[in-house]
Amino acid sequence: MKEKSTKKSNNGRIRIKKSLLITLIVALIIAIIVVSGSLYLLSWKEVYVVVKGTKVYNYQMFYETYNQAKVFKISALDLLQDNPKYTFLQQMIVDVAKREVISNRLLYLSAINEGITTTEEEIEKAVANFKEEATKGSDNPEQAIKDELDIYGLNEKTLRALLRENIIVEKKKNELTKHISVSEKEVVDYFEEWWEGYVKEEGNKESYFKANYEQIKKDALDMKRKDYLTQVSKNLVEDNASSITFDNAYKRFMRWLYGRFFGTTIPEEYEPQTL
Question: I want to staple 167 with a disulfide (CB 3.0 to 4.6 A). Which of 97, 118, 121, 218 is the partner?
Answer without folding.
Answer: 118
